[in-house]
Amino acid sequence: MLQPLAALQADGGTLRFSERHSGYRITVFTAPTPLRAGPVDVSVFVQDAVTGESVIGAQITVQARLRDHPEATIHQRATTNAATNKLFQAAVFDLPEAGWWDVAIVVEGLRQPLAVHFEMEADEPLPRVWEMIPWIVWPVVVVFLFFVHKWLMGRKVIGLERINKASSSEEEPALATLSPNQRNTN
């Protein structure tokens, strides 16, 4: 299945949350920017709040609940495999609807489990035609480059024809170079 390019930018996007809790700093990013219904990347970075070192091995779960429809709840495990930067853990899933989402990040495997909460608004998804734009544009670019190439080659051929015509024409004098001794013979 092809994903829109915006959904593929893992470990970046918009900073949604960054706070200290129980001796840890939890930082959350979402992509795409702006956030829309459809494929979404939620990347979580857990650090020791004192040393700033990343915490490896924590189990992170992302829970998202549509505010208007509590039955529309998503539970997705965040993993380093889904993250580009292996210091992050990312969860990639589809938001089925636009609207306000209440998000909980549950982190286990630390000294004590912790949960952080924030909200985010997802806009309506882009029309499907926007997903096809790269497939529509690249052939146009190739055709444009072909015609530029033809135009440049045509200019080169016309230039060569002028040179050949000038060198083969007997009406026009040929250019001659004189040595310094030949110039002073008058």
Summarize this entry quickly.
With 186 residues, this protein is an alpha+beta fold. It has 2 helices and 8 strands, in the order ββββββββαα. The chain folds into 2 domains: 122 residues, Domain of unknown function DUF4426 (Immunoglobulin-like); 43 residues.
Q: Could you characterize what this model shows?
A:
The chain is built from 2 helices and 8 strands. Strands 1-2-3-6 form a 4-stranded antiparallel sheet, with no helix packed on it. β4 and β5 form a beta hairpin. Residues 1-10 have low confidence and may be disordered. The chain folds into 2 domains: 5-126, Domain of unknown function DUF4426 (Immunoglobulin-like, Sandwich); 127-169. The protein has 186 residues and is an alpha+beta fold.
Strand order of the largest sheet: 1-2-3-6
CATH fold-level label of the largest domain: Immunoglobulin-like
Helix coverage percent of residues? 10-25%
CATH architecture of the largest domain: Sandwich
Spatial shape: elongated
Please provide the count of β strands.
8
How many separate structural domains?
2
